[in-house]
Every structure is written in structure tokens, then in C-alpha cells.
Design goal:
Ferritin; three-stranded mixed beta sheet
Amino acid sequence: MFRHTKRLQFEAKPEKPDALYAMKLQELIGGAYGEMTVTMQYLFQGWNCRVEGKYKDMIMDIATEEIGHVEMLATMVARLLEGAPADVTAKAVKDPATAAVIGGMNPQQAIVGGGGAVLADSAGYPWNGKFIVASGNLMADFRANVAAEAQGRLQTARLYNMTDDPGVKAMLQFNLARDTVHQNQWLAAIEQLQEDGLEGPIVPTALFDEEDQTHSNTLWGLSDGPAGADGKWGHGPAPDGRHEFHYLDNPEPLGGPGSAPPPDPALYGTFAGPGGEGSAKGPDKSVGDKIKDVFE
């Protein structure tokens, strides 16, 4: 159950409208790493969590907060759009709608959103549920959460430097702080999973004996850059404590030629046989007849 509180988590009042910045701020709502993504990502991770207690409660705490972040940003966008497309943006040209476009306003904010935020990124691309990661494996998910918060904080920092509005900057300062604490919380949760013996550094903690162990500790030197092995990933013990990194200079391919098999004649693919002769003959049966054969 969720209960809506009418007060925002933090104030979202710009000093003045700015339709162009409202379009930019859409990235933090509906972008791949926006607040809508982390909201749904954490909600589904929490709903699917099989570990009752501290892990599930923590996930749901942060997930519910993120709903409030979407609300803050949507409110800020609506207030930045106040008066657009009207006199505020009509100073550029006589036609208000044209002025809004010239000023950089996202037309969908007016046409679809009625002067409010829309569920899309700064380019108008709709938010997509495929952006979220909720695998059921907490180690894999928490690492994805660190990355999501890092990308979100990076984009917030960039947007922070794109405005001089003190009201907008104040809200973004709050958002930066929350992105900081959430990164730290997910990093701490990763450590806690290992301390509790629930997960190891490699996901999943299984099938080590079944994998081809000849290839579980090597870095293949496949670029012209000579410094590929200079980091910890090129030599010394691996973080999982099971392996020792080794660098392979000029490794040889292990497989045969990557040739595709002859095409199905019904698909009319161009093909040359072993002797070079053309073999793109038509099918003995029509495609329709073959489909009929399958279902009869």
C-alpha cells in the first residue's frame, strides 16, 4: 500500500519560467537513467525480493522515495512551463507556438501534457520499461543500482551547470545529495550481501566447477594499445579470491571459420557452394505450402 503525502520531499520552485530548461529536465524524469527508471527498478526489485527483513525494507524505502523524486521533477517542469507557449516565449516571434519551438520547448509538453511534464526524455523519446533491471539476484541488481545512481547523478550534475535559476539549483543540490547517499547505500548493501554469505563477488555464485576454467582468468590482448594489462585486471589475484589474472599477448582464435550454413531455398539467399557454383535455387515447394505442412 502506498500513501501520498501532499507535501513535496523538497521544494521545487523556479525563480522564473524557462521552457527550454523544462525540456532538458525531462531527461531526469523519463531518460534511461532518470527517476522513473530507478523508481520502477527498485519497486520491482523490492516486490520480487525473497529475503524478508532488512534487504527488502531498504529496497522499498529507496523505491518509495524515488516516486517522490518523480513528483518533484514533474512539479518543477510544470512551473518552468508557466506561461508557455504565451507571452513569456512570444517575445521571439509574434506567433506564441512558433516562439515556444524557437525557445526550445518540447511541443509534447503543451500538446500532450497540457503544460506539464511528460513521461519521456529530453529528446521526447518515451520512457521504456526495458530500462529497468530486476533480476531477482540481489548482487546483480545492487550493482545495476550503483550504475543507475551514478549515471543519474552525472546527468544531474551536468544539468546543474546549465541553469542559473536559484530555485532550480536548490532542488538539484538536494537531488545530488540523495544520489550520493543512494550510491553509498547500494555499495554498502553489496558488502553486506557478502558478509551475510548470501552472495559472492561473482554472479551467480555457482557453476564454477562446470565452467571452462582454462578461460576464467585471462585478459585477451586484442587491441593495439600496449597498456591493457597494466591495471589490477591484468595480473595478480582476482577479487573473487579464486583466480589469478593472466594477460594473453596475441592470443590465437580457438574456433573454426565463422561460416553460415547454406540458406533455406525458400528464402532465396545468395549462396555459392564449395566449388564456387551458385546455389540460390528456388524452393521445391512454396513458402505457403511449407507452412501448411507444419500445421497439417
